[in-house]
Write a structure and sequence with these properties.
Elements lengths: L3 E4 L2 E9 L5 E16 L2 E19 L2 E18 L2 E21 L2 E12 L10 E12 L4 E11 L17 E11 L2
């Protein structure tokens, strides 16, 4: 438990451009952040780091395509008593997706997301995640929808609950997810 709330600074910006090609938007975001906090046993110090992201979306008729690339290089140091432990991170994350609206209320889609921490051994499943997804969506009205997704996961880099997996994490797994959403 922290004796004082972690604090630091965070600032950034986002620039978007609606290209002359109807339906195309491209953009870039940037964030600079640092973090410091103390506990009775030690603390954390995160040196300022720069995160950048580039993205694009193209919509035409019933089709929607999008993609993004983000890089997060940071280096925090954890301290416990007199010991210091570096926590190197060089996250590289990207995705591509596409969807097609079959009817006004029904949409099919697919995406692939890729995460890797290049600061660590990228051959270990704990340092990467690759996820193929197929999905279907039903819009009840303009404000509510239901969605179902089938995930085919490789790697455990995005975290799983070890308490729920007492026999350890498997490097490959499949998942079915259902969601009901509302917007206002």
């Amino acid at each position: 438990m922290f004796t004082t709330a972690p604090e630091g600074s965070s600032y950034g910006g986002d620039l978007r451009w609606e290209a002359p090609l109807t339906g195309l938007t491209v953009g870039s975001s940037a964030l600079v952040e640092d973090l410091n906090g103390t506990t009775p046993a030690g603390g954390i110090h995160g040196a300022p780091f720069f995160m950048s992201a580039q993205y694009a979306e193209f919509k035409k008729g019933r089709f929607d395509f999008a993609g993004e690339y983000r890089r997060v290089p940071s280096s925090a140091t954890l301290t416990f008593g007199p010991e210091s432990f570096p926590d190197p991170v060089d996250q590289r994350v990207w995705y591509v997706m596409g969807s097609y609206r079959l009817l006004k209320k029904y949409q099919l889609g697919s995406y692939y997301s890729h995460y890797v921490n290049k600061a660590l051994d990228t051959k270990l499943p704990a340092n990467y995640s690759k996820d193929w997804v197929v999905s279907g969506r039903h819009d009840f009205n303009a404000y509510s929808y239901a969605k179902i997704e089938g995930h085919f996961l490789h790697g455990t880099g995005l975290g799983y609950y070890t308490d729920n997996n007492p026999n350890g994490l498997k490097p490959n797994s499949n998942m079915l997810a259902a969601k009901i959403g509302f917007s206002f």
